[in-house]
């Protein structure tokens, strides 16, 4: 979202405007620098957004559940639709992203 220039902050309104016009939405989930809990809710909150979304979830060696229960529920929905992709390193992320339809 930061690539879209203008007076807009990265807000829900900006996210929705962009999400309405794109053909695919790809969320990258990691704990730091920030997660995207609000956006995840929007991805599953409408049939239109959910249908064109994929999530790239970072896994952590030292933590079994690094994300909260709400996010885990969203991950499960994407996993059931085979649109959840896990990665651990930056190299993994690039490889996983290159396999997206």
TrEMBL record:
This is Uncharacterized protein.
């Amino acid at each position: 979202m930061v690539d879209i220039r203008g007076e807009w902050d990265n807000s829900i309104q900006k996210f929705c405007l962009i999400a309405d016009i794109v053909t695919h939405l790809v969320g990258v989930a990691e704990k730091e620098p920030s997660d995207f809990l609000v956006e995840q809710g929007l991805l599953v909150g409408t049939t239109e957004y959910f249908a064109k979304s994929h999530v790239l979830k970072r896994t952590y060696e030292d933590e079994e559940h690094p994300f909260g229960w709400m996010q885990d529920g969203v991950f499960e929905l994407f996993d059931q639709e085979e649109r959840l992709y896990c990665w651990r390193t930056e190299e993994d992320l690039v490889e996983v992203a290159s396999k997206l339809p």
